[in-house]
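Weekly structure sync - notes
Attendees: PM, LS, DV (DV joined late)
Agenda: review two folding runs queued last week.

Item 1: First target. Sequence and structure tokens pasted below for the record.
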Amino acid sequence: MDERYLQEKNIRIKQEANDWEDAVRKSGQLLVDSGCAGEEYIEAIIEMVKRDGPYIVISPGLALPHARPEEGARREGISIVTLQEPVEFGHPENDPVDILVAFTGSDGDSHLEMLQALAGFLNQKENLEFLRQANSPREVIDYIKNREKGG
């Protein structure tokens, strides 16, 4: 995962969430607060899940909240939210979710680039386990930097 897209201020560890929608709002708000997306981006994610189902839950315990670039994305960015207690999205195999990695891409190419950057990191179980155990945003940033240097 490319650290230029992820800043310490876009990471929240062991957050409380009432339900999947609250969890998505928390992850999306970090992107809004950092200027990567407008408020409408969060609403687009929620509406897409309501309409299309929990397709953003891509593996056990992991959701990738995102919407189409034209639905409020302003620039590339990533947020990570880990949850104190997992939430149900309604996915038959991958619920409950305790890690949300939201992202924005400002156009189709950057959207795909973000997906590829995330996939390499999130496909490795040890990285997900690290996120579940992390105690601070700084710890996450340091871990990602170390992984990118081959450590």
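Item 2: Second target, run right after the first with the same settings.
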Amino acid sequence: MKPHDYSGSRALFERAGRVIPNGISGHFNPVVQKPLGTYPYFARSGKGARFRDVDGNEYIDYMCAYGPMILGYGNPVVDSAYREQMKLADTCTLASPVMVELAEFLVELVPAADWATFAKNGADATNMAVLMARAATGRARLIAIEGGYHGSSPWMQSADRSGVISADHENVIRIPWNDVDALRRVLDEHEGEVAAFIASPYHHPVFRDNELPAEGYWREAHLLLKKHGVVSICDDVRAGFRIDMGGSNEYFGYRPDLICFCKAIANGYPISAVAGADSLKEAAGSIFQTGSFWYSAGAMAAALACLQELARIDAPARILEIGRKFTEGLTSIAAGQGLMLKASGMPSMPYLRMEHESGIEFHQALCGECARRGLFMASHHNLFVSAAHTQQDLEQTFAIFDEALAAVRASC
């Protein structure tokens, strides 16, 4: 298989570097994607579970735009709902009726939700949830998980990130994942000071194996939170609707006070949500959070159509099954070449790590060689599976992975 040519992508990146800091921001920054030169920089189009870059190369996509794509690029049901709403209005002086319809559907869909409110990004939702918890409790401190990610606001970022100062973290206490004793100690040490405990339903850090909750973890954690009057915030921004349509907490058997959704809620259209218990509705109504495009009705119509379609096809069950086939196929190919590929987390958004004496460099090289052959996976982040991935996609994925792995082994 001839490796892809990226000349058009490189030329566009050079132009971008003259007018955009780093050329590309965030996850797509070439500083993150290694080895350099093995990934394209710009996409031209997408359809189903695949996209094409500006050079015309096609990729089977297991990043799904880092999560927002769940029904496939260009899904006709979602896109049609968006277009129909756009004929009426999008960002307007007043909110659209579709906002009410979306909130009603989300409350009906999510057992833990008695109300819902909307924003644009995942960080908007987690910030709003924290403000709600502080408004409800009159407390300042937060407890979060070491290595947990909740968005790009300063308090959420690593303390050593550029522009982040110590004051941004002075009210955030980090504890290890799956450690009920650590949670108990912090709550006892800071009795009456903690507003909320924010955590993903399972631990999905970058550059590290993902971890599911230990047996009884969430039950014991919530007994402690209730005892101390602390709000439980489920950050379901990343995993939402890929595990359970009622929220990932339903799969793991617990009931948070607030749930934050984003990514897959609208199949790529920009919208996020906070849903919560009736006991926090007054606090939710008391905070001030808004944005220039938060009334954008097109994305709300897309979200309503997306959620309805996900529920109709039982998307989480389908995606989990595709994910199992995907991870089992790749681990089997690795074993056939005498190597061990470890898959952790949930099959619908697995984290893959090749165990090798060269460490992460081997896995980075492998993912780079996969990209050069038309299989797109990040080496440092969990992957994403969608309802649009087909058996044909899987078969081609396995063929590319087998060839890429052999190429990397031969070069070592």
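Discussion on item 2: The two ends are 20 Å apart (CA to CA).
Action: LS to circulate a short write-up before next sync.
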